[in-house]
Amino acid sequence: MAMALIRYMKTAEAIRFNESLRIPVKWKQAKTVSGVSKRTGAPIQGKVGHVLLLEDWGVREKGEFLCGARIRNPLAHQLFNMNEWDVEASKYQRVTCQRCIRAAERMNQNGAR
């Protein structure tokens, strides 16, 4: 029961934090994907949770990470990150990329649309 409570608290904190970013376009939390495991077919992901834009915002376009992180494998990125079926579920995971967080704050201050 204690583990469930801790998981619930982390999820609640992640939702609160992600909402505080005030990103006015459709987005989701995602990780960079460098490839696909030959053995399991699972994505080989980075560790940092980025803001992945699903609409254009300011100088960034749909499909780009807000911080400008490089997309190393465009096919794997398209397959694993650009689906929209997990947009809401992804917001239960906290954005951890400091560059994405600073970019969101900066773009909100500048009034980017």
Number of domains: 1
Shape: flat
Structural class category = alpha+beta
Largest sheet: 2 strands, antiparallel
- The number of E-state strands comes to 4
What is the CA-based Rg, rounded?
Answer: 15 Å
Low-confidence stretches: none
Average of per-residue pLDDT values: 91
Question: How much β-strand is present in the residues?
Answer: 5-15%
Report the span from N to C terminus: 44 Å
Number of helices: 4
Helicity level, as a percent range? 25-40%
Strand order in space, largest sheet: 1-4
Question: What letter string, H or E per element, gives the SSE order?
Answer: HEEEEHHH
Describe the structure.
- The structure is a single chain.
- This protein has 113 residues and is an alpha+beta fold.
- The chain has one domain.
- It is 38% helix and 13% strand.
- It has helices at residues 2-20, 74-80, 87-90, 98-110, and strands spanning 27-30, 33-36, 43-45, 50-53.
- The strands form 2 sheets. A two-stranded antiparallel ribbon has the order 1-4. Strands 2-3 form a two-stranded antiparallel sheet.
- The longest helix has 19 residues, at 2-20.
- 21% of the residues are buried.
